[in-house]
Amino acid sequence: MQLVFASNNQNKIKEIQQLIPSAIEILSLEAIGCHEEIPETANTIEGNAILKANYVTKKYGYNCFADDTGLEVTALNGEPGVYSARYAGEQRNAEDNMNLLLENLAGQSNRTAQFKTVIALNLNGQQQLFTGIAKGKITTEKSGNQGFGYDPIFQPEDFQETFADLTLEIKNKISHRGKATQLLITFLSEIK
Known about the structure:
- It is a single chain.
- By secondary structure, this protein is α/β, with parallel strands linked by helices.
- The chain contains 5 helices and 7 strands, in the order βαβαββαβββαα.
- It has helices at 10-19, 45-60, 94-104, 168-174, 176-189; strands at residues 2-5, 25-27, 64-73, 80-81, 112-123, 126-138, 154-156.
- Strands 1, 2, 3, 4, 5, 6 and 7 form a 7-stranded mixed sheet that branches.
- The mean pLDDT is 92.
């Protein structure tokens, strides 16, 4: 079985391919000739994952899965949420995003937050959603040099370190993306 992962991030694609059953071949967007930027215009994380998966299935005819992720901060009413990647502007700069978030949380005692990943799978005319959540809090300063995005300021529950301080192996076991991916893998493993 072939399954398109609506991504051109080769590291993500290799990681997924190692995790899912060997009977399933993962294809990148590039492999199917999709070179355009898929619009992410929904106002929810679920909506963007669905938009990307549906785009590939409708335009290219492949079974497909796509993911979207957001950081939801309690004191900011769920911001940056669906706008996490471009919180500080369309340049999508992680440093700018973190700085703006820390600035917006200045003086706040409630720093609880969660990362949320939703994977939308279009398979044989059916759509499934898989959600992974990592709860934690926003630190007052950056720490660590692993990972990407908001990892240097997100401290997961039951840890003293930020995501950026943890090894990729540990982070993948407890992260939002890791949890959503595990649900996808379990579902795909059960298909005969």
